Predict the structure.
Amino acid sequence: MNSYIFETIEHHKESPAKVIITSIDHSDYHWHYDYELIMVVKGEIILSVLPEFCLMQEGDIALVNSKEVHGFQNNNQENICLIIQIKNEFFDLSDDKNQAYYFYLNSAKEAVKPRISYTHFQRTLAQIGLESGHMKKTSNLRIQGLIYMLISDLFDYIPHDIQQFANEAVQNTDSEEVLKIIRFIEKHLIYDNLTEELCKSIGMSEKGLYRFLKSTIDMTLKELIDVTRLNHAIYLLSYTDKDNSTIASECGFCNDNTFYRCFKKMYGMTPLVYKNNTADDKKPKRIKEVQGYLDYSKREAFQLLKKYVEIEGGLRLDAYAQD
Amino acid sequence: MHMHRIDKKYRLSYTDRAKGIVKELSLEEKVSLMSGKVSMVEMLQNFSGEMHYNYIPYPAGGIARKQIPELKFCDGPRGVVCGTGKSTCYPVPMLRGASFDTDLEERIGQAIGEEVRAWGGNLFAGICINLLYHPGWGRSQETYGEDSYHLGKMGSALVRGVQRENVIPCIKHFAFNSMEISRFKVNIECDKRTERERYLPHFKECIDNGAAAVMSSYNLYRGVHCGQNRYLLKDVLKDEWDFDGFVMSDFVWGITDTVMAANSGQDMEMCCTSLYGNALIKAVREGKVPEEKIDESAVRIVRTLLAYTEADQKEYPKELIGCKEHIALALESAQKGITLLKNKNHVLPIERDRIENVVVLGGLANKGNLGDNGSSRVYPPYAISPLQGIAKAAGNKKVIFNDGSDIRHAKWLAERADYVVFVAGYDCNDEGEYVSNDQAGNYMDPIGGDRCQSLGLHPDEIRLIKEVGPVNDRSVVILIGGSMIMMEEWKDYVNGILMAYYPGMEGGTAIGQILFGDVNPSGKLPFVIPKKETDLPEVNWDTEKQRYDYYHGYTKLEKESIESAYPYGFGLSYTKFEITGVYFSRRGDAIEAECSVKNTGERAGAQVIQFYVGFSQSSEDRPVKVLKGFQRVPLKPGEKKKVTIVTPIAQLEWFNDRKDAWELEHMEYDLYLGTSSSEKDLIQGKLSL
């Protein structure tokens, strides 16, 4: 597994955002200060923002909040994704520096719905994506304009919470701590006394750790360990020819049955079915890249994006109508 | 350096000098002392950028070469209005009234006095003691409550405090100013008994405690504007009560007639010269106003100003403004006034170690909400919002805020929360000082005013509480507002209710501390909360005439045997108190009510022991009972203290209209001692007089 603590995202000097069109292979859990918007232009990916996983299909859009620990993986299909990473300072509407905004935007989930239709956001994202491919001198300006529109729309139409911190000191530590825990689990999947070792390593009591995970990612340690194991299993199933028993034990499952049960519960199919579904020709070619992003056809991506811009013939007022 | 404690006697010692000075003045000079020196143009110029109303102390009078100092007017009451981003902003008086703590109010007065001096002022006009006849009154936040006795005690504490720094305490608005949007036009009628027993005693109490200036009100009383009402200003205030200070008009529209105002005893037109000045000189020359009237006003003004400005030579550095001691006092005030009304199943306090997160719902949570934007608006360096305060108190626990506009999402959050805290109520858009466009040009934004439509929460807040409250057993509501907020419609949908009023610049901190039990709530309602709005007296808010009845507030509900939702004087604590040894006796001209109070719980706390007198044996129409004494008692766990409340027997008198005199009924009185005005919370005794 490739690993990096968090993405350093470099922005164009004058641009509030970085726009990437790419094919996603796999990215480990990570976090960054930027707010990240993802739109699946083709195929499917699995987005995991602990404690939840969701399958994003063509046309789905999701927002990953600042400092939120998350990861991607392809779902054994070719995919093209549009990713827009916006500097968090552009979300700084509050005078209070101890506040962080948390948006609920994910069209692949039923939970919270925006006050206007997703197509409005699809169109804005697609426009940004298309502009990023232009070489015109005005493109950067236009992207900036669209980004500001997008941010305003998020504030006005997307349900959002504010997390209030008591002071700056407590503000930045949580995501790093969660990541540290995940890293430790990943490295020591096969430990028998994983919990004990983990507590020792991060200097928390078992009770303290339980509370910390519950309040940060709303998961128990056991759940987090299972998720991490299955994550590794998916990787082994996709890229190796190891048999299920080997995978189960390499992932730290005490026996094959437990592995099957957990896998089925999470992905709705057995490991074998998962493996067989992935025909060789469909299997993405693994390219060693820092970010785990794969090669893709630019031309195809722009063709697909145009579709979203043309849906309703540009900006129309009815896009703002209540859902 | 010699320092004088200013009282009436001290002020009167300046009479001869004042007369001597006035004798040397021309008519023009004397009249110049009698009005404000702010031009309307200057005043409007003040309303831009960081400037605002009373940005600097407003000057009036003053003749330098005759050694007559200017009056320097500073408004309040939630602090000193001057400057931007500097003055300490205390909780509004309604919250301070709920503390029932006269010692604290006196300390606040002294701190305000220091800031007035540091701004270069010498008069504090933020002592508002208008009776809360009906809680719909838009400026109810500026006063202390609905009971005249309590109002007099709290107001006079502020008077004494301000006076300690040799600042002229100015009480307002004299009188009957208990309505807002009609304040310029409404003619108040009430019978003389109501006037004497309900509307004037607290003014007299403040004057007896040293108030040296009185601001007249805009409204009319018995057909005459109070700013030029001879009966109120001359007959009652100056003759009957022997008031030695001076009267000033409320600003700009406080008087309407030069001759009438001057002849009725209006000493000073504030804050611009319009109907006084040349018009008054002309009126004197034409013989319409006797020059003796001018002399009398001039002597009152000069005497008062000399007495205060010569009382000390102390320097007040600017560093006093918003200093940490004053801000600590603002916090202490909020801690002692916020009132816990409901705490079913001991939902509060939140046990910090047993929770992971708190969800805070409602837009007002994310706002440092200090009150209205009228003349009492103070501009502090910061204001802690309820949300910030909760996060501070929660330590490293997660605090999530959502405005609650999406009910489905709010429910989703509430289901996952360890605690749900709703923050609901008002801001300056809902209630407050109001100047309509036709009356005042652009003087102020025409927002606020009286709560004409409803005394309840906004429909979206009620819906949020009713739909989301029941999702989580640990749901509490924090109410923000200037006075009574109806709660019958939603109060069963949550287990906890905390009334926070407008809690000042450190209000959020106090809210957090109280929610998490770092501070034990001890406030008591300075008004009754009825079950129905119709239980309150009828008031037409937009009207040219209004009658004030003898009965209002808790006395009205009690007289009509109507049960309240929460009685006057009510407030819960996280600890328990036991009252024993109740004993009533006569000591000369006073009644002594005594008891022992013990804190039988495990937390330190404070209880307000209240003394009520009842009149069941009266042959006249008298209230069931009225408040005639109170004392706030702080107690450590297990601690027991003896409390003695002494009330002059004269307090039991009633005003006999027919004989135009105060009378004591000789009969058996019902005496009550306890922790609220509800009979359930009182121990009763009898005493014959």
In short: The radius of gyration of chain A is 20 Å. Chain A has two domains: 17-166+292-320, 172-277. Residues 139-157 of chain A form the longest helix (19 residues). Residues 181 and 202 of chain A are 7 Å apart (CA to CA).
